[in-house]
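Lab channel / #folding
Pinned by the channel admin:
"Please post every new chain as: sequence first, then the structure tokens as a reply. Keep commentary short and put observations after the output so the thread stays searchable."

First post following the new format, from NK:
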Amino acid sequence: MSQEQSYTIEEVAQFLKVSKLTIYDLVKKGDLPVFRVGRQMRVDRADLQAYIQKRKTGSTPAAAQASIATPTKNHAKIIVSGQDLVLDILAKYIEKRRSSKVLRSHEGSFNGVMALYHGDCDIASLHMFDGDTGDYNTPYVKKIFVSHAFVLINVVSRKAGFYVQKGNPLEIRSFEDFQTKTFTFINREKGSGARTLLDEQLRIHGIAPSTIAGYAHEEMSHLDVASAVANGRADVGIGIEKIAKLIQVDFIPLVTERYDIVLLKTPENQPLIDMVKEILKTPDFQAEVAALGDYDVSLMGQVMYETL
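Reply from TO:
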């Protein structure tokens, strides 16, 4: 089947004039079938037409109702939001234990957490630095999930910093260089963990974003930022160490960030929480992640914050 006969989640959302989160919710409920091409979810054209036709007629034959009924909780699809490769490994381990599909949504930190808040995913990852406390993630989730029960669990710690061109010709070393040196920057989208780190550091150092050439130029992933630096579209970008090993750029480490996941605490969600905690403590899982390199697994599986 060619990709011309199928659509991305974004294309389906644009076609139906709804948000991507609405489409992810339909996928999660089993109302709209998907298949995967690499890390991307796609919707077959015939399945989309069938979904539209079913909604147009307002009736579904009994046999069709049975085939698309929401699965039981033990076999319901799980959606994991976040961009790090470690989440793909976690999804694989969950799939093995549940014998059911785990879907991946590659949202940045804030969008993923808001998807969880609205019930559009089951596990959201985040790496959001708070300049007032020097802490990662906890200050944000405590404010976002007010009056909601949740648990925040560490997955890995990793280095974040600047991508620079090979040899670091501009000798970029720190956030203070925004004040003393002239270069073209490339940014991440608003709400991403990397963007949060940058904006908080600029605030701490009293640097106005308007003084930074390229600040308004946004990319949607660490890989896109590193690629822009590698091909000369920018001198400096911000991201994580792992990606620098895949692209021809140098990496200037600035901070060690905590990469956590958050899950809502509900009676029906407790088996998933227990499973994730167990997986993260499994020696095989920790060894597989450590083998990737550039990850610190010493806090993996540790509860960083949990409501009663």
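NK: The first helix runs from residue 9 to 16.
TO: also worth noting, Residues 5 and 284 are 39 Å apart (CA to CA).
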